[in-house]
Recover the amino acids of this structure.
C-alpha cells in the first residue's frame, strides 16, 4: 500500500473513532480550546441586567434581575442587605467548598477548557474547581443514586462545534450561590448549557437556568471567555486559597482582616 | 499620610476596587470587598517591611510614620500572584527596605489596611493607578 493510501486510511479510521465516541453522531469539531482563558465582564453573573450597569459583585446595593418569583425576590433583597453589612455568607471565602454550578462560569483568574470526545473538563485556577461534563452517551445519575452537590451532575453531547449539556442535582439555597450580589437558587434548579467558539479568541457559554421553586421563567445568561495573551509562561498555577488567607469569615458572616502576624485588626473586633 | 478626594482619582479607585471584585485585573477577590471605602484614595509614604507573594492574595507590609515619632505597619492587600504575574508584577517587585509611595483604598473602619491602587517606587517606576 502506498504511503498516501496509508495516511488516508489512518485519517478515516481516526475520524470514524472520534465520531463513534460522540453520541450526537454529527461529528466532533470543537475547534481549538487550548491555552489559558479568563472570563470577560467580571464576577457579576448576569452583566446584562446589572444595576448599576458597571456594578461589582459585593458592591453594596448592586443587584441583577433574575426572574425571581415574589418569595425569592424577597430572599434576594434580604441578602442584598447582608452585602451592605458585609455579612453575606459565602462558603468559598473560607476556602473549603467548591464554587459549584453555575458559578463555575463566574470565577476570576485563569480557566482551562479540556475538550475530548468523551468528557470535557472545565478547570478554574481560582479554587481550584472542576466541572466534568460527560459526553460518552451516559445518562444522568438515577434518582435513587444522586444527591445534592455544589457542582451537580452534567451530561451532554457535541453537535459539530457546539457542546450542549444539562446539569441537575444542585445543592440549593445553602450551596447554589451564584455571585456576591446575593443570588441563590433552589434545589430544584437545573440548566441546559451550550458552549461554542464563535471566533478563534472567544468561548461563549449560554446558560438557560430553570428553577420552578425560585424563578418564573428560564433565566438565560451568556458568559464569554477570552484567551490570556502571552508566551509559554502563561499557565495555570496553584491558587491555594488557604495558603495565606488573611480574610477569614467570622461566625456572624463578617469578613475579617488579619495583620501579618495573624491578628484580627478590624475595629471593634 | 495624605488623603485626597479628587474626582480624577475616583475613576482609578473605582477601577481598582472593581478589579478586586470583578476579577478582571491585577486585584482578585476571594472574599467580599465591602470593607474598603471606594470614595477615598489614601497615599502612604513609607518603607516596605515585607512583600508576601502568596495566595489567595499578596500582601504589602509598609511601615509608615505615625506622626508621634514612631511608625505604624500598614497591611495592603493585592491580587493573587498568578494574576499579578500576568500583568507584569514579579515576586521581587517590592523588597524589604524599599522606600515607596503607595496609594490605597482604605478600610472603612479606619484600620491601618487597605486595597492596593498604585505605587511609586524610589526609582520613579509606577505600578497601577498613580496619576
Amino acid at each position: 500500500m502506498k504511503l498516501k493510501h496509508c495516511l488516508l486510511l489512518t485519517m478515516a479510521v481516526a475520524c470514524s473513532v472520534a465520531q463513534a465516541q460522540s453520541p450526537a453522531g454529527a461529528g466532533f469539531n470543537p475547534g481549538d480550546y487550548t491555552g489559558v482563558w479568563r472570563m470577560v465582564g467580571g464576577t457579576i453573573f448576569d452583566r446584562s441586567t446589572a444595576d448599576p450597569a458597571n456594578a461589582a459583585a459585593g458592591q453594596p446595593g448592586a443587584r441583577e434581575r433574575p426572574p425571581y418569583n415574589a418569595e425569592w425576590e424577597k430572599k434576594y433583597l434580604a441578602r442584598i442587605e447582608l452585602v451592605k453589612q458585609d455579612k453575606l455568607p459565602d462558603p468559598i471565602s473560607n476556602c473549603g467548598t467548591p464554587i459549584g454550578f453555575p458559578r463555575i462560569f463566574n470565577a476570576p483568574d485563569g480557566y482551562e477548557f479540556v475538550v475530548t470526545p468523551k468528557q470535557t473538563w472545565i478547570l478554574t485556577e481560582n479554587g481550584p474547581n472542576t466541572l466534568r461534563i460527560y459526553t460518552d452517551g451516559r445518562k444522568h445519575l438515577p434518582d435513587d443514586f444522586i444527591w445534592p452537590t455544589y457542582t451537580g451532575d452534567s451530561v451532554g453531547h457535541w453537535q459539530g462545534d457546539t457542546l450542549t449539556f444539562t446539569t441537575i442535582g444542585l445543592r440549593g439555597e445553602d450551596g447554589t450561590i451564584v455571585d456576591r450580589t446575593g443570588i441563590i437558587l433552589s434545589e430544584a434548579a437545573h440548566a441546559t448549557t451550550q458552549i461554542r467558539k464563535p471566533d478563534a479568541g472567544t468561548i461563549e457559554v449560554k446558560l438557560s437556568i430553570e428553577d420552578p421553586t425560585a424563578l418564573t421563567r428560564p433565566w438565560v445568561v451568556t458568559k464569554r471567555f477570552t484567551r490570556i495573551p502571552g508566551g509559554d509562561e502563561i499557565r495555570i498555577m496553584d491558587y491555594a486559597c488557604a495558603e495565606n488567607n488573611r480574610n477569614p469569615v467570622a461566625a456572624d458572616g463578617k469578613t475579617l482582616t488579619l495583620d501579618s502576624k495573624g491578628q484580627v485588626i478590624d475595629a471593634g473586633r | 499620610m495624605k488623603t485626597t478626594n479628587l474626582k480624577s482619582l475616583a475613576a482609578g479607585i473605582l477601577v481598582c476596587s472593581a478589579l478586586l471584585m470583578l476579577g478582571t485585573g491585577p486585584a482578585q477577590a476571594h472574599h467580599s470587598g465591602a470593607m474598603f471605602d471606594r470614595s477615598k484614595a489614601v497615599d502612604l509614604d513609607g518603607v516596605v517591611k515585607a512583600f508576601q507573594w502568596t495566595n489567595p492574595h499578596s500582601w504589602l507590609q509598609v511601615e509608615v510614620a505615625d506622626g508621634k515619632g514612631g511608625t505604624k505597619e500598614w497591611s495592603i492587600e493585592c491580587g493573587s500572584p498568578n494574576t499579578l504575574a500576568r500583568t507584569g508584577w514579579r515576586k521581587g517587585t517590592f523588597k524589604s527596605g524599599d522606600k515607596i509611595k503607595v496609594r490605597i483604598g482604605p478600610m472603612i473602619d479606619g484600620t491601618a489596611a487597605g486595597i492596593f491602587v498604585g505605587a511609586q517606587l524610589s526609582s520613579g517606576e509606577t505600578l497601577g493607578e498613580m496619576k
Remarks:
- The CA atoms of residues 17 and 116 of chain A lie 12 Å apart.
- Strands of chain A lie at 37-39, 110-115, 119-124, 129-134, 153-159, 162-168, 190-199, 202-210, 219-227.
